[in-house]
Amino acid sequence: MYSEKVMDHFTNPRNVGEIENADGIGQVGNAKCGDIMKVYLKIENDIIVDVKFKTFGCGAAVATSSMATELIKGKTLDEASKITNKAVTEALGGLPPVKMHCSVLAEEAVIAAIDDYKKKMGMDVPDTRCSGCCGKCGDTRTE
Prior knowledge:
By secondary structure, the protein is an alpha+beta fold. The protein is 38% helix and 19% strand. The protein has helices at residues 4-11, 59-72, 77-80, 85-91, 100-120; strands at 24-30, 35-44, 47-56.
């Protein structure tokens, strides 16, 4: 079942909403499984000063989005880009195996928003960020 922290972040999600004129926006998801996450970043001097999310999906998807935003707020881009689905899951006190894909989506949404910002700033963005959650490449990693 779900941990107390998962239930708290689902029923009282942090950082819900949009950032107007966001510096970076990342959207990931799969309409097939029904989970879609969108992350908005406001960045000043290489630091994420604000982060918001909108998620369409199950309770675990909302909880992982909420926790991911909490984990990256106030961090540098480099620090935030190292977020992992494992870190999100651990911060929530665990997830059922069937819901691990939600933590992968949260990781990918953060990375997509950071990459969007970097592209807008003319920075190089590596092509090796995909962890397979969207299914486009056939990978189905869930951990």
